[in-house]
């Protein structure tokens, strides 16, 4: 019964989903630039056992292994601007260890991604607004000590992107895994420029609004003010922070349960859902863009990079082969250009679109939000650095 209620509650997005598909039916044909980001809910402490965490020394080992393995998988496959595929590492605020974060920060300074903020709270009992604010401000300061985060338009206030643990953004779980109705206002007050939590289907925290980039439409100190909102559009700069950056949420009729029920494409990369060109078609059909700029398609994916069973898909052949097929498709097909970006870079491109800028979005990666410690630009690795155990196959659009 509980599972049935969970499924029904998670499907409240279907009416808006259908309306969005009808409104945006022609947009995929107008897409000239695919802007692809991966929000990694990055938890080196994760063991898979509730309330049990890896020791700091084991987290250091895992982080070093990741930093060594990642470049070998992604380095060969570059976007049109010469950038490799990047993770945005949303690191757990409640499990800060300087020796672990410093390895990650150096990995990012080398050009493989950027660090932002991830928070689980209210697990056993609802959290308080005061404690939530304190955790965010403290972790923000700790990340600054490693040279992480960004600033906007030269302002001294550190800015960050956010992912909520257990999907319960702004108490959208009705008290579970948060408990703070005014969380969105706290995020705004502490420098959050964008939230990257959604989609969360099939979890019940999934809201009705889908496949959108928007600003909250309900009072920021109320529960889940992101349930409604104004889509961002060309010619109108955002008036509220954080802006909401959703990833694709689609029905997948190519993957049916029991041969009948369509699967849910929720933009997660995992062992059971590796990246593929078939999934790329769904991500493009979601047609997430700024109104008035359909040629710029924003694709925000998510993963849990430190879950051991998912790592073969993220650090192994499935990811490397997807990147090969994707970059070859972009180069050979000619219908779109590919841009690998971080969460910050994606938001900068969004803001450029809102200001009416057009053309090549790759030139707007640092439009307003600029890294406190700029990453070093990577030279491209030799093609022989990563080899496949299977012969190459032709890809199709």
What does it look like?
- The chain is an alpha/beta fold.
- Helix 4 runs parallel beside helix 5 (98-112).
- The strands form two sheets. Strands 1, 2, 3, 4, 5, 6, 7, 8, 9, 12, 13, 14 and 15 form a 13-stranded mixed sheet that branches. Strands 10-11 form a two-stranded antiparallel ribbon.
- It has helices at residues 2-10, 14-23, 27-30, 56-74, 98-112, 129-144, 183-189, 277-285, 311-315, 317-333, 343-354; strands at 33-42, 87-92, 113-119, 150-152, 158-164, 192-195, 213-216, 229-231, 243-245, 250-257, 261-265, 268-269, 296-303, 337-340, 369-371.
- The radius of gyration is 20 Å and the shape is globular.
- Helices cover 31% and strands 19% of the residues.
- It contains eleven helices and 15 strands.
- The termini are far apart.
- The longest helix is centred in the N-terminal third of the chain and has 19 residues, at 56-74.
- The chain has one domain (2-375).
| Biggest sheet statistics | 13 strands, mixed
From the helix content, strand content and strand pairing, which structural class follows?
alpha/beta
Secondary structure: number of strands: 15
Mean of residue pLDDT values: 92
Low-confidence spans: pLDDT under 50, at least 5 residues? Answer: 1-5, 382-397
User: Which outline best applies?
Assistant: globular
Give helix and strand order, one letter per element, not per position. Answer: HHHEHEHEHEEHEEEEEEEHEHHEHE
Radius of gyration: 20 Å
Report strand %.
15-25%
User: What percent of the residues sit in helical stretches (DSSP H or I)?
Assistant: 25-40%
Report, as a whole number of angstroms, the end-to-end distance.
Answer: 41 Å
What is the domain tally?
1
Helix segment tally: 11
């Amino acid at each position: 019964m509980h599972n049935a209620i969970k499924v029904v509650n998670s499907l409240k997005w279907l009416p808006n989903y259908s309306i969005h598909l009808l409104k945006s039916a022609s947009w995929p044909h107008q897409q000239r630039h695919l802007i692809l980001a991966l929000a990694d809910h990055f938890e080196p402490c994760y063991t898979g056992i509730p309330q049990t965490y890896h020791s700091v020394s084991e987290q250091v080992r895992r982080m070093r292994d990741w930093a060594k393995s990642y470049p070998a998988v992604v380095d060969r496959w570059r976007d049109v601007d010469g950038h490799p595929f990047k993770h945005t590492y949303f690191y757990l605020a409640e499990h800060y260890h300087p020796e672990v974060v410093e390895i990650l920060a150096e990995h990012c300074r080398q050009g493989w991604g950027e660090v932002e903020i991830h928070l689980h709270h209210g697990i056993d009992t609802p959290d308080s607004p005061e404690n939530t604010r304190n955790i965010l401000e403290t972790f923000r300061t700790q990340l600054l000590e490693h040279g992480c985060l960004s600033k906007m338009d030269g302002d001294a206030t550190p800015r960050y992107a956010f992912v909520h643990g257990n999907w319960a953004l702004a108490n959208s779980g009705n008290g579970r895994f948060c408990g703070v109705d005014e969380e969105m206002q706290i995020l705004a007050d502490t420098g959050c420029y964008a939230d990257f939590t959604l989609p969360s289907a099939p979890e019940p925290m999934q809201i009705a609004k889908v496949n959108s980039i928007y600003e909250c439409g309900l009072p920021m100190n109320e529960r889940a003010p992101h349930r409604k909102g104004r889509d961002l559009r060309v010619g109108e700069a955002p008036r509220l922070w954080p802006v909401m950056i959703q990833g694709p949420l689609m029905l997948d009729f190519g993957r049916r349960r029991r041969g009948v029920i369509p699967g849910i494409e929720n933009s997660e990369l995992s062992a059971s859902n590796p990246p593929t060109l078939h999934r790329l078609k769904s991500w493009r059909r979601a047609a997430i863009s700024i109104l008035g700029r359909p040629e710029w398609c924003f694709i925000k994916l998510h993963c849990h990079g430190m879950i051991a069973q998912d790592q073969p898909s993220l650090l192994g052949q499935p990811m490397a082969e997807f990147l090969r097929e994707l970059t070859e498709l972009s180069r050979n097909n000619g219908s779109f250009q590919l841009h690998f970006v971080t969460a910050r870079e994606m938001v900068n491109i969004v803001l450029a679109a809102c200001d009416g800028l057009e053309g090549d979005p790759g030139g707007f990666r640092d439009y307003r939000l600029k890294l406190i410690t700029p990453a070093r630009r990577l030279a491209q690795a030799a093609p022989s650095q990563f080899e496949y155990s299977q012969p190459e196959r032709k890809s199709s659009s």
